[in-house]
Amino acid sequence: MIIQKTSNSRIQNLDKDNISFGSTFIDHMLVCEYENGKWGEVRIMPYGSFSFSPAMMCLNYGQACFEGMKAYKDQKGQVFLFRPEKNFERINKSAKRLAMPEVTREMFVEGLKALVDIDRAWIPQGEGFSLYIRPLIFATEEALMARESNKYMFAIIASPAKAYYSAPVSVLISDYYSRAANGGIGFAKAAGNYAAAFYPTQLANEAGYEQIIWTDDATHGYFEESGTMNVFVRVEDTIYTPPVSERILDGITRDSFIELAKRRGMEVVVDKIPVQFVINAHKEGTLKEIWGVGTAVVSNRFKAMGYKGERLTLPLLSDEESYAENLKKELIGIQSNQQEDPFGWRVLVEEGVAHK
Amino acid sequence: MIIQKTSNSRIQNLDKDNISFGSTFIDHMLVCEYENGKWGEVRIMPYGSFSFSPAMMCLNYGQACFEGMKAYKDQKGQVFLFRPEKNFERINKSAKRLAMPEVTREMFVEGLKALVDIDRAWIPQGEGFSLYIRPLIFATEEALMARESNKYMFAIIASPAKAYYSAPVSVLISDYYSRAANGGIGFAKAAGNYAAAFYPTQLANEAGYEQIIWTDDATHGYFEESGTMNVFVRVEDTIYTPPVSERILDGITRDSFIELAKRRGMEVVVDKIPVQFVINAHKEGTLKEIWGVGTAVVSNRFKAMGYKGERLTLPLLSDEESYAENLKKELIGIQSNQQEDPFGWRVLVEEGVAHK
Ligand SMILES: Cc1ncc(COP(=O)(O)O)c(C=O)c1O
Ligand SMILES: Cc1ncc(COP(=O)(O)O)c(C=O)c1O
Predict the structure, then answer these.
(1) Class level of CATH domain B169-335
(2) Residue B323 pLDDT more than 90?
(3) Could you write out the three-class secondary structure of A257-270?
(4) Considering only alpha carbons, which residue of chain B is nearest residue A214?
(5) Do B50 and A55 touch (CB under 8 A)?
(6) pLDDT (tens digit, 9 = 90+) per residue, A237-290?
(7) A120, A137, B151, B237: which one has the fewest Cβ atoms less than 10 Å from its Cβ?
(8) Pick the CATH number of B2-163 from 3.40.1000.70, 3.30.470.10, 3.40.190.10, 3.40.50.720
């Protein structure tokens, strides 16, 4: 690993209380380039730019995938990652499906720790604050043939993130648009999946809904995901979530919610969720809550859902009654080292690890 | 339109008989940038590079779409585009579905003519030669939020293309992987669609097939497209091709083949093609030919098809008997101004139009 530190830190400009998320970047980034069938040396260098022409293959054929994860600083200033091995495994699943080279543990996990160690001062401390981390791989060869690229870049960039309150949202159950095909790339964190979701989401926004609940494309009869979150439905005291499949992203927050719920003795059913089952439960008054989960917001409750032109209001439980809130609190406690971690999910970023 | 000509033409390096397609670019490119809700001025400038950071939105969220078209030089040195209005319409359909700004006719059609006019010397003359032209739009804002970008670049780049003989290929009928979802983006020339196809195509290659025949993702029971071509099936003397839909690219070559076949009085049925119908026709000996069509190769005949572990050999008609070959010859004749153009498909690029 080559470490080239900046002589021009921008950290004095960081105003923790006015972070513009996603457009303020930490001083450094990690970069590694692939050529002639292999990855080159991992470099940590000042955040900055490269040059490209409009022939860069990922602009034309979309070979690009990414991860989204966070680092948390506890009250003593220690820094933790959350289940980074899961993101490492997932980016390689995405890469494989897009015919891109997989990255090594050294590049991803060790590189990540070194980068976070070097820029640990950028991680804001305090309830809900974190460092949002974006590893990505994209095709860099400049050529116009519709085939897989021979050159790639792996990069890790990161942006400080403030706590943000996620107010309950309204969601539209999709009965026309879909996110993923059978035998497609829905399980991959492929760049192209996100672009495909923006227009349907705009239409949902215009109809008065913040998010979409994606359904299966063949029948639109089953819940799949919600926006960029996995989805949970609670009927009476049972929690339902769809099984992951080649159409559904295998979310790390989803997996963590399932584990936490089971440990509490809650009943968790991982099975297909028919839209009609949810609509019926709503009618019968047994539908207690629906929520989405993902790294960005941890969890976000739904207050209404649109279906076939109707807007169905969901009950709003108190924080004490809500499974979504209880599990969220517990997960945040584990992530930020305020609570015991029975699963071994937290990974300490040792001080000085970049230089070991 | 701002025209900034290069003082360093590379054209003396162009060796018509050894063109490395897709990686040799003409001297100039067209560029136009979108910001603050509108497109800026169209610029024609020396082909070259821009700078980007790994936060560039199209690398992360895949907002990128493109077109593929050709310019042809006739024996007198006149240069023609082929149905450029169709590409203009299609790129805007793609852009809309990906929540990207549409481009104007001035940017696309007039810009294209000016660029081709300026670099007309780069278009190789002679049977089958052409200039391959790649207009594209991609998101350039640098931010990590999963939402549509506020900044875009529209660019047109081009590469001289030599004649290439398209030998008949073997194709695998997909019974697991798919290219597009119902309510998805299959009809768009979205960058992400291509990345999604590479891995299944690699698997097909390993199984001894050059291309895939994509089927519908819900049942895998119907033909959709083949590789990056639309598909035609001939049973006895009737030609079948699937209707375009939100899953199938509305190919310009496909449309032209249909028109040409109808004008010749051939029977053309635009309807769903069940895989079983084709397999049965093969068994009964009534299946005459199958071929794909697209701008790159015009048309490519299939010599075998794989289905459920079996490899079915297709008849190989003589060029005279083959509808695929006859229609291809006629289309090439029109494109390259060797034949009358009853449809008005050819568009002359006037000399000096860039400076008008
Ligand atoms: C489509 C989609 N589904 C679900 C998730 C949730 O995954 P995770 O919990 O790993 O962040 C994400 C990412 O945030 C996503 O992009
Ligand atoms: C997926 C796909 N289908 C079909 C085609 C054929 O379209 P056209 O005839 O407009 O080139 C293309 C582009 O070449 C394509 O990428």
Answers:
(1) alpha beta
(2) yes
(3) HHHHHHHCCCEEEE
(4) B183
(5) no
(6) 999 999 999 999 999 999 999 999 999 999 999 999 999 999 999 999 999 999
(7) B237
(8) 3.30.470.10
